Amino acid sequence: MRNSLPDRRAERGWSQAELAERLGVSRQTIISIEKGRFDPSLPLAFRLADEFGVAIEDLFDPER
Fold first, then answer.
1. pLDDT at position 4, please?
2. Which of 9, 13, 20, 35 has the fewest CB atoms below 10 angstroms from its CB?
3. Distance CA 53, CA 41 (A)
4. What positions does the domain HTH cro/C1-type occupy (predicted)?
5. What pTM did the predictor assign?
6. Is the distance from CB of 36 to CB of 29 less than 8 angstroms?
């Protein structure tokens, strides 16, 4: 499974900037997470999952 964050964000019609604002992080943080260059902290991963109403495992591959 790949990082599904970009797909889920697009399904909601949110820009990277909008998601970043909702989470209180920078747009660059969202870009880096989506490109797989940055693994979010556990608290941020939980906030992301909560924002989309899914489990962390549904957003990120735990085997990566």
1. 83
2. 13
3. 18
4. 9-59
5. 0.85
6. no
